[in-house]
Amino acid sequence: MSHFVVVIFPDTAIASEGNKSLYELRARGMTVYGSAVLGKDSQGRISVLDRVADSSHATAVAALIGALAGLPAGPLGAAMGAVGGALIGMSADLTDRGVGRQLAERVSHELGSGKGAIVVDTDPEEVSAFETRMKALGGTVVYSR
After folding, report:
1. Which pLDDT tens digit goes with each residue over 53-83?
2. Domains in the chain: how many in total?
């Protein structure tokens, strides 16, 4: 079982600091099945600034990234983006968790121009330490399930 967390930061530089903290937590033993650092430019395009995947474990991170990329094309584009994200080596179990397009739309809305985000798929027992660390850096947890 894993736990999916999305944290929004005021800008991509702080999101990068959050990512460094995530790497430190991993070095200390935190289980990370998959993670991504995202940024949104002034034209509303979402880009992946960094990504980590444990290919031995199914994760929804790539499916969310794909859905976010497909949002400008509408629901069908988001669905196709999620499929594309899953095909790049990770599973699309967002649907199994009841997340899907609604989460992608929420993250896209919360991830305003110039902001950054970290998406992580981790062990439920390690969520609290991760969230505490991200909040200390100025992050806002917008999804945790």
Report:
1. 665 454 456 556 656 655 554 443 444 344 3
2. 1
* Residue 44 domain boundaries: 3-144
Identity of residue 70: G
Tens digit of pLDDT for each residue in 115-129? 998 888 889 999 999
Neighbours of 89 (CB within 10 A): 11
CA distance 38 to 8: 9
Is the full-model pTM beyond 0.85? Answer: no
